[in-house]
Every structure is written in C-alpha cells, then in structure tokens.
Fold these 4 entries.
Entry 1:
Amino acid sequence: MDVSSALRAELAPTGVLRAGINLSNFLLVRGRTETGDPVGVAPDMAQALAEKLGVGVRYVPFPSPGELADAAGQNIWDVGLIGAEPQRAEKIAFSAAYVEIAATFMVRAGSPIQSIEDVDRAGVRIASTARAAYDLWLERNIRHAEVIRAPSIDSAYEVFVSTNLDALAGLKPRLLSDVKKLPGARILDGQFASVQQAIGTGRAHQAGAAFIRAFVEEAKRSGLVARLIEKHAVQGLSVAPLA
C-alpha cells in the first residue's frame, strides 16, 4: 500500500499514530507493559497499522468503548479500535471487522428461559454492560424485556446476581468464566449478536478510512490477525471473514 505524505498527515497529524484502545475488552487487551502500554491483539494491530504508515504508535487508553467513541472528533485519537456499531458509525468511519466475538446470555439455575428467543419477553430483566457493542445491539433490538445497565462487565455480573435478574448479556468467552461462579447457571445456545471488532477513524478522513479498510483486509488475508490471536493465546476470538 502506497503512503503519501498527505495520507500520513491525515492519519497521523502529530507525527505518530495515536491509537485509542478499549481496556475493558479482555480478549483484545491482555494486560500492560511495565511502562503502562496495553498488550494484546488490538494494540498489536495498531502497531502494525503504524508501521504501514511509516510512523510510530502512541496508545491512548480508555476504560470503556463508550468513552473511546465519545472522544471521536476531539483530536484525542487518530484511530480507534472498538466494535463497529451503527450508533458509533455516525461519527466514526469503520473498517470491516478484523475479529468477531459471539455475544449471548447466561441464565440462573431453574430459569424457564430455554433459548435466546425466550429472552425478549415482558417481565424479563437483562443485566448488561452500558454502551458495550452488544449493549448497543440490545438497545436497537430488545422490544419487550427490560435492560438493566451497569458501568462495567464485573458490575453487570454483580447486578445480575445481587438483584436476581433473569439474564446476563455478555461476550461468550467472559460468560464461560462467569457461569462457573454461579451454581446451576447455564449459557444459552447460539448467539444474539456477533461483535465486530474494527478500526475506525474520523468520518472526515476519507483517504485514511480507505487506507485502514485495505490494511484490515490484508491483515486477515495474510494471516496476521490469526498469528496475533495465536501469539496472545486468546480463546473466543475468530478471524472475521474478508469483506
């Protein structure tokens, strides 16, 4: 991919690529270095993108994807690595997904809920993490059940347990650990959504957005994404199909 000085100035106006990273996605960010930089598939994707541009990378961490999305257009980050959702796409030009993560529900012991289709019914209360990609899906699609939102993944689980809610929405890899903590709980078969983890930039950056889209497709085609998943030993991530 050719990189012009104009493209470099558009995507990295400060001379480095400022990459917004969502620290709450434990599949894509596995920890921190001694200097505080995030470690994982998402930071490595940002590093690889910066290398394609011929610039360095500086990570801009956010505690949640909603806060990262809120910073779009504020000259805080140049690219953001979060789930691509219609609400966020109003401000952010996203690539196609580079990885996908299944989202489903967990229910408690003795629950009459047997399938995902049973969840969206009057009287059902769902615990969710506010403004997570799967929570934005619930906001668009849940018509009859009530969604109770908590500020973090951990607090969503605590609310589900402490207030005796009917279902807990979440990424399947996280629910696989949560279900072990609650005797008799079970995870519903299938998924209600597949969270599309992508790379976005400001909507005004048309050339930059095209460059990022091409980079993501090449990262999937070349096996880079698969190698990063293997490098960080992540269970529950799958390489997204080519766009």
Entry 2:
Amino acid sequence: MMTPHELVKGISGLVSLPEVCVRVNEMCVRVNEMAENPRYSASDIGKVIGQDVALTARLLKIANSPFYSHVSRVDTVTRAVTLIGARELRDLVVATSAMRMFTGIPSTLVDMDSFWRHSICCGVVARILGPHCGVLHSERLFVAGLLHDVGHLIMYTKMAELMKVVLVRMRATGEPVFRAEREVIGFDHAQVGGELMRLWRLPESLQEVLEFHHEPGKAEHFGLETAIVHIAGVAANQVEPDGARKKATETVDPVAWKITGLTEEIIESILPEARARFVEAQLLMLPGMRAAH
C-alpha cells in the first residue's frame, strides 16, 4: 500500500516549485530567522522575484488590493516585502504559483474553477476569522485556506481511477470525502497536502494545517490555525453561491469551536463581509475567471 509520502515523493518532478519560489523561500527563512543580522534583505528578495515578470505583476496587484490596505501605492516587490513581511510574501509566491501548477486534470473528476473558488473562499473566511481568535498577521490564514485542499489535485492527477471510486462511494453513502478516501485508498488528501508542504520545505504551520484541517483536534502545535481553517472550509459553503448544495454533509468538528472560541453567531455575522471579499479575491487570484456572485 502506497503512503502519502511515497505518492508525493514519486511525483516530485511534476509538482516541484519553480526555481524562483525555491530561492525566495530560502531567503525568507534567513530573513525571518536571522533578523538581527540577515544575510538577505528585502531588496535581495525583490530582485529574485523580479526575474519572473508575471509573478511580479500578480504580487503587486495583490499588495495593492483591499487585502492589504496600505495608504500609499506599493510599486516595487521590495516595498511589498517591507510592508507585508517576508514570510507572508513567500507564502503568496507559493500559493499563486501552485494555482497555475496543476493542469490536465479531467473535468469528470473535478471542476477546477469550482475547486479554486472554494479554496479562495476558505482562505477569505479564514483570514476574516483570524482577528476574532486573536491571531496576529491573519494574512497567513488566507494562504493556508487557499492551499488546504491541494492534496486533492495530486490524487486526481496520479490516482484518477481510485478517485473515481471515491466519488462513487461519496454519492452512495454521503460520507465526507476524507473518510471515503481513507476507505478506498488508505489515506486522504489532507495527509497528501501535508506531505507536499514538507516536500516544498514550507513552514510547519502550513504542514500541520493542511494535514489536520479535517481533524483539528489532532494538531499538536498549530491547533488554533488548523481549527480556524477547518471552520472556514465549512463556512465557505455558506458564502459560495452553490456551496450549500454541493457540501451540505460537512459539519464543524465540536473540537474546533472549543479551540477557537468561535460560535455559529460569529460565523453568521461575518458572512456579508466574506461574500464581498470573496468576489474581490476571485478577480484578484483568478483574473481569467468570471467571478461567481
């Protein structure tokens, strides 16, 4: 029986981060962990990202969006690093690259527009919920929510026939997708996503959030962030136009309410803002897609 680690390791060439992402990741680690005497500066990171014109354009568009309400215009990546932070910008680099990495997945398995809409919506809701839970720099929760289901894409790419069986089982039993995956395959997309974050050498917080976003009580170090993304994934179904119909079987793990201190009333109160931000984020992250309202 293949393991999540073996699956991800076996397709490392298919899902390798672009070189610019690898270099930015390494620099950001040094900038943050050696802040008193950094080897790399914001200018150094800006120069690396600047080698990819399309990536630079996307990041500046994000930095000047309502997600980052800066008084003055952000016109260089160096300034974006200074204002947003090296780690947050690194996560955005990875997220925007990942969204363009997976192609050729049959539409019979997954509607990619719908997949990314749900992912974006989860990220939006997670970021809005962050301050309600005392999370500082809640921008990072947007990236965690955006990537939370990326393990699905690897499984759809390399295990298409087994995933068809998973989909049939879900329709027949109504059970959550991660449980159907475990029954059919032996592991689930959350475990695969966590392994992908390890392969990409991304922060432990992202590794843990992705791996346990369906079972937040199992997160040992980043339980709060994991629980927020878990709740956001369910709440996103109330924000997406067709979400409630698609995923009506998903419910919040009671452990997540306890960890976060959130309530259904708080979720209800943030829905109008989430819907507005969802439309903005679609246009921002997926400019070629017609936004769903």
Entry 3:
Amino acid sequence: MRIGQKVLALVLALTVVSLSVPVYATEAPLSALSEAEMALYGETSPTLSIVERVEELEKDLLGEVSTGPLINRIATITELLNGAGDKVSINLKVSTLEWYSTRSVNPGSLEERVAGLETLYYGGPQEGSLIKRIDRLVSMTFPEGEFDVALVKVPDGQTIRIKLQTELSSAKSKVGDEVKYVLVEDLRLENRLIIPAGTQGTGTVQQVTKAGNLGRDGRVVVDFGYVRAIDGTMVPLVMDKEALDKNKSEQLAAGASLAGVLLLGPIGLVGGYFVKGKDVTIPIGTEFYVQVDGPIPVGGLGEVR
C-alpha cells in the first residue's frame, strides 16, 4: 500500500487525497476495543473502564461475560467481528443477509443492521445475544447455513465506479465537510462478490481554494476514505492514473475534456491536473471512477447454499 498522501486534482478541479493507513495493522488493545464498539454500537464508551467496556461487548455479542486476560478477550471479540482463517465473520454474515434480502448493504452499526433485518423478517427486533440472533436469521434464510468464502486479493489500482451524494463546490464546500457517495456497480473478482453496489462511503473535504484573480483555479481536495467490503474489510479509495484514464476514456465528468489541461509533476507526494478559470461545482449524482489503494486481501463471497 502506498505511504503518505496523494493528491490529484480532477479536470473539473475536484482533487482527491489519499491518506493510506493500513486498516488491519497490528493494533493496541484499546484501539481494537474502540473499533469493536464502533462496529457494534456506532459509538465508543470512553467514560467506562476498559473492563466494563469489554464485559458489555461480551454480554451483547455472546450473552455472557468470559474470564482471562483482557488482551485475549479483546482479540476474541475482534475475531468474531472480522473473522480469522476459515471462520466467517459477523460482518460477513450480516452483510450477506442484507444483500440477499434487499440487494443492499446497510452502512449502520451491527446493532442497527441486525434489528433492521429482524424487523424485515419478524416485524421487530428480537431477544438474545447478537450471535444467536444472527445465526437464527442465517438458519431461516439459508437452511444449510453455509457460506462460500475465499480470500481474494483486490489489486492496487482496481477501479470502482461511484456516484456522489454530496455536492462539491469550490465556492461553497468547507474543510471538514463530509462527502458521501455510493458504489454504482458490484465489485466482483474471481466470480466472487467483493463490494456490493449501493455500498455507501464517506470522505472528507481536506482543502478548498476559491477561484481568484489572474485565472487562479477553484478546486476542492477530497479524501475519499474507505468503503466496507462485504466481509467488513475497509478498502481505501483514491484517485490515481488508472481511475483518471478510465474517466477520460468514458468521457465521465471527472475526466472529460482534457484539452488545455496542464499536467504538473509531483511536488513531494502531491501532483495534480489544473484548468484555469472559475469556481467549479460537481453536482449530486455525478458518476466517476476511483480506485483501490492496495493490494487488499478481502473475503469474497461466492454462492450461498
């Protein structure tokens, strides 16, 4: 995975920044605990002690509190959520249930997603530990309860088509604004579903430059962040040569009309395309390609029996 920050300004003065951070690098237990809380609840519990936080996760996930060193208990929680070896993760089970039921994957917390599935199936949320509730849904949906999952390496530069759900404007956007988007098409590799169409992602406006005198370009710098694969893996997205070339070849908004564009070479880790002129706006609904900053190993879903 690339290191550092990459910036490419699109022809329409949309600039994309990649902050390449390995998602599944070895983490401190407290970081892993916070990530588990975010996955399950959508928020952390910083006012509680570490012991209380671990116990709450265990009760909600397993229905009981375990014993032993905290580091091992946190590792067990992480393994349940994300999977390990040939084990199917909770994330993958819930995403598979959503995809097969509605052909979409909910971006919310696991609690919200499971409650949503139970409402769809039974008319309302059910009782019990999260694992038992999920297994009940799996048994009802797939009688044999088997998931065909195999590790697939998503290559660096793999293009993904997205649609903006947030307007970008060098006149109106502000640093820190969220940039929401959805995948337009399934990402499938080796006959396996990697990221379903409709998966939502959220980026952040990193920099805004308004158009100025002497033909100074307006531009918006965006970090597109990550999208969640069907197994829960967070896949980083960037705008680089492969995506820009594909946008250009298909005459999409992000790559249209390169006439008169000046390509500036890298300055440190920053490079860009600029067009002189005015403030620019990229409206909601604009589609273009971004690409994976990889390679990233992902559990790809085959046929569910």
Entry 4:
Amino acid sequence: MRITNYAHLPACFITATDTEAGKTHVACQILRAWQQQGLSVAAFKPVATGAIIHKGQRASEDALRLAAVTSQSIHEINPYLYDRPASPHIADSRQSFCLSDCLQQYKQLTQQYDRVLVEGVGGWCVPLSADLMLKDMALAMALPVIMVARIGLGCINHSLLTLKQIQRDCDLLYGWIANCIDPDFPDSSSNILAIEQRMTTGTVIE
C-alpha cells in the first residue's frame, strides 16, 4: 500500500502524519505526474493557516506552490486562510469555516478539470471548527485518501497511528507515501520497511 508511482493515481485527498510532513511537496509531484498524462488538473487546499504577504496580499505559501504548478488563482485553491500558524479552530478569527460552501467549491472544480487533488491542513484529526475535524471534510468528499508520512525519528509510531485511525473512520484509505524530508536521517529505509511490514492491507501502487 506504499505508493511510489503517482501517474495513475485517481483524484484524491492528501492528509499526513502531522504538520510539516511535506503534503504540498507531494501534492505538487502528483499534479505534475497527472499533467504529464495530458490531464487538466486542479489543486484545492480548502483551509490554510499562517498567512504570508505576497505581492501586497495575504496568501498561503502552500497555495502559492500549488498555483505555480496548476496556474490557478490562489483564491480558487485556498478559500479559507487564517493568519495565525495554529490549528484552524484556534486560528479562526476572521472567517468561520463552512463545510457546505467548501463542498460546493470542490464540486465546481470537478466540473472544470479532469483531476482534482485536495490537500488537507495538518493531520487527519486536526479540528477545523468547534464541531468539525479534517476527517469530516474528507469523508464528505468521499475521495480516496492518501497519507503522507514524514520519514524521520518517530515516523513509525506517527504513521501507524494515523493509518489505523483512517481505517477506523472509513474505507477510503488508498495508500501512503513516504516523504524523506531529512537527507541526513540514517534510518529512512528501515523505518519505511517497518511501516510497510505492519500495514498489510490496502492497495500497492508500483
């Protein structure tokens, strides 16, 4: 169930073990792989925190990276942006998250593009509001879920806990991607193998 070839992935929902796991880096790779197949593609990162100022406007750094691949406007990619780099339910000071609006915007993208990639914020159980978690958005979209694992110290525990929780919550888990963000980490291969050996169900993409 570890995914190593992105070209033939379906439209999907990207989550991760935690923040800074490299979701956006992986999302950009998947989008480029789709483009190489001749598909029109869109990214959708409904919620982002930690706004920066870009060309005089508030923006999500992740949305800017995605837009550089897809040529979308950052507003189409990221409708909910909070200034504070915090969990959305804490960072929400200007704009209350509305799941139904988010789903409508996602539906519009699916009508305009061949393939849509949705990138979550933080990890699977991050609260979006007092009543909603990220997983509620994923379940409402009913997309295949792909988890990005930050390969480094502690990744086995974080990865297995997240993968198992996704499996408890739904039957949408499609697979996981190992993101080796630290080139100096000496045990990447052994950690990846440890996760693979302990996850025995799901889809293998070669």
